Amino acid sequence: GRTVGALRTNERGGALEIADGNGARAFSAGADVDGGSWSLSTPNGRTAVVAACRGSGAGTFIVNNSDQKPAVTIGSTDEAAGRVAVAGPEGQTQVLVQGSPNGGGMQVLFAGRRVLLVEGNAGGGRIDLADGDGRSAAALGVDLTTQSGAVSVRNQNAQELIRIGADDKGNGAVTVTNQAGTERRNFGVREAR
Predict the structure, then answer these.
(1) CB of 156 closer than 8 Å to CB of 142
(2) Distance (Å, rounded) from C-alpha 96 to C-alpha 171?
């Protein structure tokens, strides 16, 4: 007979390994003072999936791509909220979805720079679009002062040039600013008399 499983112990905990019919490790599990973990491996010995507990009690689930880089990571933040990261072929995060005690959000990243942000909290929602360098180009959200929608268009320095929203009386308002920020024009609707 061929050995297809092994159980080991040490002062920190124990480990179990199960091999496939060819003797390659297919499943392994372990436990120590920080918690437990398990992993699944491909026939060529590459780790494909890992699930683990951290000492804090939080868990992590990782799916690797064929190059052994994390493709999807599911876990929790230090604030006990959920977190999902989806990576590109090189293992760099491209989409991040995360909760928090005050709301949640999603980011799309390009070359490590945030190019899209969608978030929400008790104040409302916000969408922020950025250029390839991560500079904010436009935003859509809630103006907390007027409790109305607002759109902001920004220049290459992320300086607001155009703002569309409502004034404190609920009328439509547009503010246009020059590039230097020294000149501003406001356009709005006059109150009916």
Answers:
(1) no
(2) 37
pLDDT digits (tens, 9 = 90+) for 15-32: 999 998 888 889 999 998
Is 135 in contact with 128 (CB distance < 8 Å)?
no
DSSP string for 63-100: EE-TTSSEEEEEEE-TTS-EEEEEE-TTS-EEEEEEEE
Rounded CA-CA distance 39/136 in Å is 40
pTM strictly above 0.70:
yes
The two structure tokens encoding residue 8? 């080991």
For 76-111, write each residue's pLDDT tens digit: 877 778 999 999 999 899 999 999 889 999 999 999
Query: Rounded distance, CA 74 to CA 71, Å?
Result: 10
List CB contacts of 53: < 8 A, sequence separation 6 or more: 34, 35, 36, 37, 59, 60
